[in-house]
Amino acid sequence: MPGGTGSGPPGRAADRPVVTGVGVLSAAGRGLAALTEAATHGKALSGPVTRFDVSARRTTRAALFPDTVPLACTFPLARAVLDAIGQACGQAGLTAAEGAGLPVLLALHSDERTRATADAVAAGVRSGWGAPGVTRVYNGACVAASTAVADAAALVAAGRHERVLVAAGHLVGPGVFAVFDAGRALARDGEARPFSAGRTGTLLADAAAAVLVESAPAAERRGAPALARLAGWGRAGDAHHVCRPEPEGDGTARAIGAALTRAGVDPAEVGYVNANGTGSTLADRAEARALRRVFGPHTDRLPVSSSKSVHGHALEASALLELAVTIGALGTGLLPVNAGWLGPDPDLALDLVLDGPHAARPPYALSLNSAFGGANTALLLAPG
């Protein structure tokens, strides 16, 4: 695993990507502040599913948008995504002139509505922000949004674009809910309990999120404060099984190692991990082993939590939602609580954030995600 002084990899430091705008719609409501507050205090946001009939399902709960988030329109997911984009661009102070030529990377679930949703988002960014449309759509399951962020960071770091907009969205629907329920992937007791004894699965979630990734000098010229710096990013596949994780966490460990190497950061410099932590017995165990492989003895004093325990699992949008939570934690100096805790699992041995708010100012934080098929991503953040 990588070592180093923390001085960063060779290259032009001025081109390092930063995040200047974040937009969020979640079960906590509109905006990052509401989501950060819920995550900081471990306030689980799940409730009964009323959007469609779940009377025949084993699990009947999910983390859905509250009634204050309007969805009554032809393309409700596009509307939610455009709301998040508006928040992110507004916070970053982006003008329509600055949005001309802006690449837009969009993560969505692949179904019969994907093209229409992407087209509606494209029309919205053209009219609202001067962007040419949606540049690329990512359907890579639960690493779709984090893959898009890594691509955005690479484009900015290479000097190919001054800024890139990344957006993602997911609405809980009857089809996916039925599939996850039939596959026994959803928590039987209706509570997500990552890394806890007695965990039985995840809970699905609504989400829309957006981040504006810019080069540091471009942000400085516009007078846009950096909310966080994308210090490193890594991706790795293990191809172990179509849905089961590689038991030793090989892919996750390699993704983390790649992110640390890219940043020139020693593992001991990482001060918080927002883990993938779905609440799956096998996946949580594999991720814990991956962390132990990378961080060794430092694992015993490395705070870890899964914000999915609060906002649920939004599939293709989850990684961007969790990145937003991690940025919020760096900004407030309060680490998200690992909610749903029942007791320790002796196979895991992690330093979980269980009592909040947990005050900390980590120099670096990781946001991790994994997907069916053995895809794994790691995004390494530093305070802006």
UniProtKB/TrEMBL annotation:
<protein>
    <submittedName>
        <fullName>Beta-ketoacyl-[acyl-carrier-protein] synthase family protein</fullName>
    </submittedName>
</protein>
<dbReference type="InterPro" id="IPR000794">
    <property type="entry name" value="Beta-ketoacyl_synthase"/>
</dbReference>
<dbReference type="GO" id="GO:0004315">
    <property type="term" value="F:3-oxoacyl-[acyl-carrier-protein] synthase activity"/>
</dbReference>
<dbReference type="GO" id="GO:0005829">
    <property type="term" value="C:cytosol"/>
</dbReference>
<dbReference type="InterPro" id="IPR020841">
    <property type="entry name" value="PKS_Beta-ketoAc_synthase_dom"/>
</dbReference>
<dbReference type="InterPro" id="IPR014030">
    <property type="entry name" value="Ketoacyl_synth_N"/>
</dbReference>
<comment type="similarity">
    <text>Belongs to the thiolase-like superfamily. Beta-ketoacyl-ACP synthases family.</text>
</comment>
<keyword id="KW-0808">Transferase</keyword>
<dbReference type="InterPro" id="IPR014031">
    <property type="entry name" value="Ketoacyl_synth_C"/>
</dbReference>
<dbReference type="Pfam" id="PF00109">
    <property type="entry name" value="ketoacyl-synt"/>
</dbReference>
<feature type="domain" description="Ketosynthase family 3 (KS3)">
    <location>
        <begin position="14"/>
        <end position="383"/>
    </location>
</feature>
<dbReference type="InterPro" id="IPR016039">
    <property type="entry name" value="Thiolase-like"/>
</dbReference>
<dbReference type="Pfam" id="PF02801">
    <property type="entry name" value="Ketoacyl-synt_C"/>
</dbReference>
<dbReference type="GO" id="GO:0006633">
    <property type="term" value="P:fatty acid biosynthetic process"/>
</dbReference>
